[in-house]
Design goal:
403 residues; alpha+beta; PH-domain like; 3 domains; 4-stranded antiparallel beta sheet; 19 strands
Length: 403
């Protein structure tokens, strides 16, 4: 029997999104998130802007769009029925991106100015002729979001480094150049406003046009390694630039900014981004996953919940140490020590938070204690993730130790 086509519906109370078979229209349902009872109705088609907004918003409700459809667990009487409103309009663009949106619209009329090549375990790949690096609109087309977590806050400006064009004597400087930020975006904009891009210096180690600044952004909580990679390719004697983005939501917006909106490739990127959003493991940059895989492997039936980097290690070493949380256990790695904590057995997490740093101490009966150096945001996110599992763990905030 052929499966029904899936449609997207929205809870009228909390805006949780679900994908359900079209044959469910007219049936009664109860939202898994808030308990609201309603009848599934045929709504106006949800346009690509709305779907794209759900991918980019990062709200908990959007995470169910490509996930559970099991909302039909309770009968609903006609008296309890609530009319479902039409989906809300897509998220507004940030003011700093408005000009890019207009430019993308004009480019779209002539077709995308970059070529979407493929998606693999590293991310989404794009190509364009190297001579197009002289186009400022192309080089200023990266979304003003963290290339890892998509936040718009506390962004640091990084520049693409075309390592294939580095002179031999400078090749060893590639990693340092990749992880080094130019300046915070907010400080640049406070001085130069919207002309900040024009004030960026070229990359002195590279020959033109590869020296022209091509900025992307990483927040101060994330590492840049593996989030954005670039290479120079040779196609029949002509040089092409290749850019790979590990975060597929960012890749979809980048392609959209370069005229890809409405194309089959763009629709594929949006769908792949929705799927990645529900897979925390694949959302990590490939380089980080590769390092974590040296000391952690998912067990059968286990769900990855998050990776929390150790602040005692540089951002370029993300994945080499830290804490992995799944729905069954925590696995801790630091230097030669690897410790595992069974979540069902219970334990305690004590968090000592200061203005810019935090210490997370994990204790469990008959296990050695683990201490994770973290930022306050990482510590808070770990506590929230662990609490959400509703397992017998005590999450405690402790006062900073006297020095």
């Amino acid at each position: 029997m052929e499966s029904d086509e899936l449609i997207v519906i929205v809870c009228p109370s909390c805006s949780q999104k679900y994908r359900v078979p079209e044959s469910r229209i007219g049936q009664r349902a109860m939202c898994k998130k808030c308990g609201q009872r309603f009848r599934i109705a045929m709504e106006a088609p949800i346009d690509e802007d709305t779907l794209f907004g759900w991918v980019m918003e990062g709200d908990p409700g959007s995470q169910s769009v490509a996930g559970s459809t099991a909302i039909f667990d309770s009968p609903v009487s006609d008296a309890q029925e609530t009319r479902t409103p039409a989906p809300e309009p897509p998220m507004n663009k940030a003011p700093a991106q408005a000009g890019k949106a207009d430019a993308a619209s004009s480019v779209a009329a002539a077709g995308p100015r970059i070529h979407f090549d493929r998606i693999d375990e590293i991310g989404a790949y794009f190509e364009f002729p190297a001579e197009r690096l002289t186009e400022a609109d192309l080089r200023n087309s990266f979304p003003q979001r963290c290339a890892c977590c998509l936040t718009r806050k506390h962004l640091l400006v990084h520049l693409l480094i075309w390592g294939d064009k580095l002179p031999g004597k400078d090749a060893l400087k590639l990693r340092d150049a990749e992880v080094k930020s130019v300046r915070s975006l907010s400080s640049l904009m406070s001085v130069y406003a919207e002309s900040w891009f024009e004030k960026l210096d070229p990359v002195s180690m590279l020959p033109p046009p590869f020296s022209l600044p091509f900025p992307y952004f990483v927040c101060r909580e994330c590492g840049s390694v593996g989030a954005v990679t670039c290479h120079i390719l040779d196609h029949d004697g002509r040089e092409f630039c290749q850019i790979a983005l590990s975060n597929l939501s960012l890749a979809a917006e980048f392609y959209r900014n370069n005229g890809g909106r409405g194309t089959p490739a763009y629709n594929r990127l949006v769908e792949a981004a929705r799927e990645q959003k529900d897979n925390q493991w694949s959302s990590l940059p490939f380089a980080v996953r590769a390092k974590i895989s040296h000391w952690f492997a998912l067990q059968n039936g286990e769900t990855f919940k998050g990776y929390f980097a150790d602040a005692d290690f540089s951002r370029s070493e993300a994945g080499a140490a830290g804490l992995v949380l799944t729905d069954r256990r925590m696995v801790y790695k630091k230097y030669t020590a690897i410790r595992e904590y069974d979540l069902a057995s219970g334990g305690a997490v004590d968090i000592e938070t200061g203005p810019s740093a935090a210490m997370v101490e994990i204790t469990q009966t008959d296990q050695r204690t683990a201490v994770l150096a973290a930022t306050p945001i990482v510590a808070q996110t770990l506590a929230q993730s662990l609490n959400a599992l509703r397992l017998p763990w005590a999450i405690r905030t402790v006062k900073p130790r006297a020095k």
